[in-house]
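Sat 14:20. Reprocessing the chain from the morning session after the first attempt stalled halfway. Input below, unchanged.
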Amino acid sequence: MKKLLLSLLFLAGTLAVFAQVEPYEFKEYKRNKTTAVKSQDQTGTCWAFSTASFLESEALRLGKKDVDLSEMYIVRHIYRQKCENYVRRQGNAQFSEGGLAHDAINAVAQFGIMPESEYPGRKDPKAPFNHSKLVKNLKSICDESVKLGKDGKLPTDWLTRVDQVLDEEFGKVPTKFTFNNVVFTPTSYRDYLNFKTEDYVTVTSFTHHPFWGKFILEVPDNWANGEMYNLPIGDLMRCAKNSIELGYTVEWDADVSNEGFSAQNGLAIVPSTPWKDKDGIAQTNTFKMWEPETKITQELRQQLFDRQVTTDDHLMHIVGLLDEKHSGMYYVVKNSWGEVSDNKGYVYCSEAYMRQNTISFTVHKEAIPEDIKRRLGMIPGEVTIEKPTSSGKNGRSPEMDIKPSPNLRRPSKLTPVEKSTTPTQKAPSKKTSDN
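Finished this time. Tokens:
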């Protein structure tokens, strides 16, 4: 009996070793409509690229065709607002290329939107984006304006100088344009696309503010003091999954400056074994061979945020769901660094990675599960709260062990579907910068 027990233990250990050196194996469950992968090049404007991509998918969902929005139209308006905010706050405000999804949504609400073809936002449409000199110049103008303001000498038309610099970089914004033989203004084009900006909300999950209310997240790029709904992490993840199930996509703000994110390999994971503790073979196999992931709890997530391990790095666009043979659900994420990796610019992100590294999601409010909308006060009705009855697995906490919706079975039983075809473009010669 003892020999049999030892043999079984040896066999179990052997199987565990072999399981860890099997390659990742993905089957596509669902991918919603989206547009071509672009590159933000040498700029920190991922917030504009990801949100424009998100809105393009919204337009496709609403039945529009040939949608390619101008990111630089959004960026130009936000740079101007940043200048005014910085000067009015007497220089005590964030001033950089970075931003969040609500900046782009707010710009579309105030100023409308334009097609890329009508406002490329650069003198040479084929040249890569690079805003380093532009932002340095704008910052200099703003600092000078702050000093003039403190001395009581700021001219009333000081923003004219800002507009001149922006026009030189991006081109003047037309009051109207012709697209597909129709004359539009930026606001009428927004209305033609049927964008109702009030329908988009941002959700997050942090314990330093109460759940089930709104708060202003304390990250540097939240210069506009945008509010977010605060949910437990399990409910936050339900918002993302439910959105994809229902045919919506998700704008994602996340940390990518960690060893688990690899755009070159098209994969984002939270390995349970840190890079420094791996031998040479294990390091070589990372992102190629499957390995167990860390279980991400609400408490661990908060600790990493408080210690600035998880930071507001980069915004991307979630467009689909995958079933990975060993660990279940993965998310299909459209990046804005060009068509890098075999995934052509997409990154497959594990649920554990999402739970640990998500700063926020921006979603259509109709894609939020009904019980969450009730508890947030978005719709009337009684709230039923179910407590988890079992422990989670594969890096998932108990609050993720919820009843699957009729449209999506558990990840281990997902059924593959035919991969949809999306337009593509050539990758840039240089790796792009993050937000």
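The two ends are 61 Å apart (CA to CA).
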